[in-house]
Write a structure and sequence with these properties.
24% strand; 7 domains; alpha+beta
Length: 1250
């Protein structure tokens, strides 16, 4: 019979799961009567909506099929409750010879009913017919006796015919015309859905024959079908992964492979990032599958082995079936709503809009995936932290997960897929964001060097539009941006090649520039290649900390004042006076210059740092130069390589007797071993550096015990003059020392001080110093670099060792005191990886530094670290269980106007506005519903730290440093969020041939050094070097003044563009002038405002990005452009026509900008529009060819920038030959070039699968 069973709750349904592994028959109720019997009997005991039979794969019987079996189970229960086999139901006679056959017949039918209901029905009919035939020949007394039995059989018949299964079976057989042999009739009713047992998600393909097929294509060896449903608004996106349609022997291999490699750890001495781990494990899986197939006589091709390895990889170290949706780059968003298991996954397709998929994601799989996301992000996800938001770099996807209590129905997930290449104007035309004529207009505005603000709300596409506009910039122009700087000794944690490390800005940038070189532009050193995949901690738009990739590293030499900013928690950062940190304004985070900071201001710092998770493994042989290796395979290795070793020994001066001893004793000098350039397996290998001390293992995996020991040593350990490792601890901590010693085959002794445990072994001492880097005295000890690479549990153990060695639980806090300032700073950083914000300070009386955790919320988070000692843990629990007082440390420093606004929603005006009380995070959470900003602030990864002191350190003449973090404009340095100003797709545009240069300039509001030039002078210099462009990724705050200075200086001969939040031209004037304090006269430097918005046509759910307004800013007005008709609307969007409408006569009559272009370029109004229309026709031609040939790649920047450059070159050639551009001829020449070059190249790549 089958094994154990369990009823699971999944999406509001009860699912009966029965384990058939090891069963003598298969998990198929149609084929195996024993399987049907198992299911029916279980259904008599439990309530279930669906049934799953699990072996190497799972057979899923849906609600309809389960109800058929539940009907049989209910009938059996009813018959058993009525005890239809009892004598009273079998006849009036008490003669056992009469009743016994009837009893056997009833029990036989009942037993058959469990495993073959229709056969039981036929047997019942046969028995009933036989007994009815006997009645006429019986005496009245005998007939009366038999009628009792006949009534019981009739009662059973009625019960069977009332069941849905027998009713449908009769109709099916009547339609069939005959009764099939065996159990084949059950196949019609019980055709189960099949999926691998290790996959939680279910897929379905019901009713596809009634659907209209719109499209089909392949994604990761899976077929995607897009259907149109006659009765649904959204289309259907059905995916058919190979893992749901494999033969049983392949499911067997998949399951066995998972079992075999479940406990496997890499034996290479390296840390693995996600990409490395995938490649490594895919090879392991392929090899394991090959071995298992050979042992079980299953024939597989190489392609089949690789395919199975890919499936195992997807569901072990990957993201399961989600990978298929995220790998389809035609998808833009994927939604998994709560409660999981009830609704299918939804997604937004770039071509077919919102689609319902055929995949139902299970709770178990969601928990598994969220666990992976939590590990990758290094952040908590529980009821105290119900939001998990971060980037998944290997799949270029943004993830947002919400759980209880925020999502009352449990976990819900949203995935936003990033576009991997910049948007282009042609793609926007193809997606109907605007028409081709408008695209031609935009291209001309860039060419004519207009100053533009690209306006829109979040989700309107303004940043994507900015990227597309930048591609219209002639490639001989130089793009300039303004930068900020930090000093070279500023410390930060970065990720490099998948591994975290603590470094300084100078060490990092100088090292990279020394290794890879740099470009020198007017003294600015710029490295635009990130060949080591360096990532910094950064704050995203939702105020969540993530690890973001750096696109550029910058340094330049200054002679200027340096300021040190110190906070209440002990953080310090040294920056130039013009460098911006972040404060909180009415609109959210705002940059604030260092020289504007005052004591008592609040600045943004991270309350958590999402560390990576990697296994740390060392091989002492990688560090040894002298000494001996023994144990393991050494003796066999010496014998196998004896000839080579004798030659090496002779060359290196070893005596013959010594080499003979190697072979005899199975010992090999490290130098001789390394000289062979061959490798032995690490298992069992030992090393020693002297003859007396006991050898210790070469291979060291840093687990929780060893990590905690390292922490103990840093807190209270030292080495004596000879060979002892001494840790001054007792109790539970001493037991840990004994465990670690035992792991190396060593014993612990008591030191001469009478209580400190001591491990006397030269080899272990050498290993701790030279491999684990545990060294230094009480003032110079530091956290070894490998600690930053540890997994969360090992990292917590390391801190546990530190706090157990030199920490204690006081009346109101947990504290640790050390004499190493550096060590205290690093403890604070490591605590942030667990969401613990601590405070540090200098203790003058004993020249030491302390680190303290005090608030109730942080103490509860500290429980993940805790202590080794039970008594200290009891004290910690008492602190956590105290009723917390008002937490005055974790506050959100809302400005007065925001608090005034919140009083309209219930905030106490007297306390928070009149008396000026700060709003705590918990308090603000109750107002999260008011608007998006309140929700972001309440759920943010920010800790608002108060400025304690801003001190001028004097003038330095040295390098200062900056990083470009695209899309986020900030990085975490010294555990403080520092500002940077880059939001442009610089690497992509550089690859496309654009000359992009970031320039360091003096801030427009002063504070710069004598060695820096002003923005105006920099632009004038750029004009002498060639035409220039200034592009500002986002205008949010005071940088608006710098932008308008640039617009005014660059009004002739330069393009200036920036994006800004807003909904219309007038709203932007109001914000720029009244909120950002740009003078009204300066706003006139804007030539055009281009406004975008997401449109819901006819109130539909779907949002469509559209440009809704193109407006010229006229120059004649003085105070209010709205009242003085200072805006000229070139184009306005009509939603009824889904089109921009242009008033050309009005433009001809009123446009000041057109008249300026006529005057400056010597061209007529008609020639301007000929050029605009010609540019528009080039965009439309590219779109038409793409649609005709089904060639989406043709609209990518790689091709459109080349097409645009060719258009400019041909235009220039016409001017040389004809004195003007002959647009019709030009378009013919250009389209011919496109066909012969770009189209052919794109077709070839498409055929080759590039």
């Amino acid at each position: 019979m089958a094994g154990r069973s369990v009823v699971k709750q999944e999406g509001g349904k009860k699912i009966l799961v029965i384990d058939f592994r090891g069963s003598a028959y298969g998990p198929d109720v149609a084929r195996y009567p024993q399987a049907m019997k198992d299911v029916v009997e279980k259904l008599t005991e439990v309530e279930a909506d669906e049934v799953v039979l699990s072996e190497y794969y799972e057979r899923i019987y849906d609600e309809r099929q389960t109800n058929l079996l539940k009907g049989i189970a209910a009938l059996i229960t009813r018959l058993e409750e009525d005890t239809v086999w009892s004598p009273s139901h079998l006849g009036t006679s008490i003669d056992s010879k009469t009743l016994s056959p009837r009893h056997d017949a009833v029990l036989r039918i009942l037993n058959t009913l469990r495993s073959d209901p229709f056969k039981a029905y036929l047997e019942l009919l046969s028995e009933l017919k036989t007994q009815m035939a006997r009645l006429p020949s019986l005496s009245p007394q005998q007939a009366e006796d038999l009628k009792t039995f006949v009534n019981t059989l009739s009662f059973m018949r009625q019960g069977l015919e009332e069941t849905q299964l027998i009713s449908e079976m009769k109709a099916y057989l009547q339609q069939l015309g005959s009764i099939p042999t065996g159990r084949s009739a059950y196949n019609y009713f019980f055709e189960a859905a099949i999926k691998p047992s290790f996959i939680g998600s279910r897929i379905f393909f019901t009713g596809v024959e009634k659907l209209e097929l719109l499209d089909q294509y392949d994604v990761l060896n899976s077929r995607v079908y897009v259907y149109k449903h006659p009765d649904k608004v959204e289309n259907l996106y059905f995916i058919d992964p190979p893992e749901y349609s494999l033969p049983p022997e392949k499911y067997f291999l998949l399951e066995k492979t998972k079992e075999v490699v479940a406990s496997h750890r890499p034996d290479t001495a390296e840390f693995m990032n996600i990409t490395q781990a995938r490649k490594y494990f895919r090879k392991v899986y392929a090899a394991t599958i090959s071995d298992l197939a050979l042992k079980n006589n299953i024939k597989l091709t190489v392609e089949e082995k690789d395919g199975l390895a890919e499936i195992v990889s997807r569901y072990t170290i990957g993201y399961g079936i989600l990978e298929l949706f995220l790998a389809d780059r035609q998808n833009t968003d994927v939604y998994i709503d709560a409660p999981l298991g009830e609704k299918p996954i939804y997604l937004v397709h770039s071509k077919y809009g919102q689609c319902q998929t055929n995949v139902i994601f299970s709770n178990d799989e969601a928990r598994s995936v969220v666990s992976r996301f939590r590990a990758l992000s290094g952040r908590a996800f529980d009821e105290a932290h119900p939001i998990l938001d971060f980037d998944l770099p290997d799949l270029q996807t943004r993830i947002a997960a919400i759980g209880k209590p925020l999502s009352s129905d449990g976990i819900a997930l949203v995935f936003r897929l990033h576009k991997t290449t910049p948007w282009t104007l042609t793609q926007f035309v193809d997606n109907k964001m605007f028409d081709s004529r408008t695209a031609g207009l935009f291209s001309f505005l860039v060419d004519a060097q207009a100053s533009m603000l690209l306006v829109g709300s979040r989700g309107s596409g303004k940043t994507s539009f900015l990227q597309a506009m930048m591609q219209e910039i002639p490639q001989n122009l130089r793009i300039l941006v303004q930068e900020d700087s930090v000093t070279g000794d500023s410390e930060m944690v970065v990720e490099r090649n998948g591994l975290l490390e603590k470094t300084t800005t100078g060490e990092l940038v100088d090292g990279l520039m020394k290794k890879y070189g740099y470009a020198n532009f007017n003294g600015n050193h710029v490295l635009s290649n990130n060949l080591e995949n360096v990532k910094v901690f950064s704050l995203n738009a939702d105020y969540k900390v993530n690890r973001a990739c750096v696109s550029q590293f910058i340094r330049h030499k200054v002679k200027k004042k340096i300021f040190e900013v110190e906070t209440r928690t002990g953080k310090k950062i040294k920056v130039t006076s013009d460098h911006a940190l972040f404060t909180l304004g009415a609109g959210g985070l705002e940059p604030i210059k260092t020289n504007e900071l005052r004591e008592g201001n609040f600045i943004a710092t991270p309350r958590t740092l999402p560390f990576t998770e990697t296994a740390v493994h060392f091989n002492a042989l990688d560090y040894l130069e002298d000494g001996f290796v023994l144990g393991g395979e050494v003796k066999e290795f010496v014998e196998t390589n004896w000839a080579a070793l004798k030659t090496i020994a002779k060359k290196t001066g070893y005596k013959k007797a010594a080499t003979s001893a190697w072979k005899r004793n199975g010992v090999l000098p490290v130098k001789a071993y390394k000289s062979t350039k061959k490798k032995m397996r690490e298992d069992g290998l030992l090393f020693k550096i002297d003859k007396k001390s006991k050898p210790v293992p070469c291979s060291i995996l840093v687990d929780e015990e060893l990590a905690a020991f390292a922490g103990l040593w840093l807190a209270d350990g030292c080495y004596d003059n000879k060979y002892a490792t001494i840790v001054s601890v007792e109790g539970e901590a001493k037991k840990l020392v004994e465990k670690v010693a035992g792991r190396f085959g060593l014993r612990v002794r008591t030191h001469s001080d009478g209580f400190s445990p001591s491990i006397s072994n030269t080899n272990l001492n050498w290993l701790l110093k030279n491999v684990l880097k545990l060294k230094g005295n009480s003032k110079t000890k530091q956290v070894p670099r490998w600690v930053y690479c540890l997994g969360a549990s090992e990292r917590a153990a390391f801190l546990r060792g530190l706090f157990s060695g030199d920490g204690w639980v006081a009346a109101n806090e947990v504290s640790i005191r050390l004499q190493s300032k550096k060590l205290i700073e690093e403890i604070q950083t490591l605590l942030l990886s667990f969401g613990v914000v601590s405070r540090s300070g200098y203790i003058k009386r004993d020249d030491s530094w302390d680190c303290r955790v005090s608030s109730n919320k942080m103490l509860k988070a500290f429980k993940k670290v805790a202590f080794l000692q039970q008594k200290k843990n009891e004290g910690l629990m008492q602190l956590c269980e105290r009723r917390p007082a008002q937490d005055c440390t974790d506050v959100i420093p809302l400005p007065r106007e925001t608090k005034t606004f919140l009083t309209e929603h219930g905030l106490d005006k007297h306390d928070y506005v009149t008396r000026g009380y700060s709003v705590g995070r918990k308090k603000l959470a109750s107002y999260a519903h008011v608007n998006a900003l309140m929700q972001k602030l309440a759920c943010s990864d920010l800790y608002w730290d108060q400025v304690k002191k801003v001190k001028c350190l004097g003038v330095i003449e040295d390098f200062v440093y900056d990083f470009s973090v695209p899309g986020q404009e900030n990085f975490v340095c010294e555990n403080i969020v520092a500002h940077n100003t880059q939001e442009l797709p610089v690497p992509n545009l550089k690859r496309l041939g654009f000359s992009i240069q970031r320039m360091k300039t003096r801030p427009p509001l002063g504070g710069g050094s004598e060695t820096e030039v002003s923005a105006e002078d920099a632009l004038r210099t750029a004009l002498r070097l060639g035409d220039s462009v200034l592009v500002v990724g986002e205008v949010r705050s005071k940088e608006a003044k710098a932008l308008y200075e640039a617009m005014r200086v660059g009004a002739v001969g330069n393009v200036v563009m920036g994006t800004i939040h807003g909904e219309s031209s007038y709203s932007i004037w109001d914000r720029v002038v009244n909120d950002l304090e740009v003078p009204t006269t300066s706003f006139k430097a804007t030539d055009f405002c281009i406004v975008g918005a997401p449109i819901r046509f006819k109130g539909a759910i779907k949002r469509n990005r559209r440009i809704i307004e193109v407006t010229e800013v006229l120059k004649h007005w003085t105070t209010d452009p709205g009242q003085e008709k200072g805006f000229l609307e070139w184009e306005l969007f009509d939603a009824n026509k889904d089109a921009l409408e242009m008033d050309e006569p009005l433009i001809h009559e009123k446009s000041e900008w057109v008249k300026k272009i006529e005057r400056m370029r010597g061209i007529t109004y008609e020639e301007i529009w000929n050029e605009i229309n010609a540019r528009g026709k080039t965009k439309q031609y590219m779109v038409d060819v793409k649609n005709k040939l089904n060639m989406p790649a043709l609209l990518e920047a790689e091709y459109t920038t080349r097409a645009h450059t060719k258009y400019l070159l041909l235009s220039e050639k016409h001017r040389e030959l004809y004195g003007k551009v002959m647009h019709d001829q030009l378009l013919d020449e250009w389209s011919q070039w496109v066909n012969e070059n770009l189209v052919k190249e794109c077709q070839q790549r498409q055929k080759a699968g590039a």
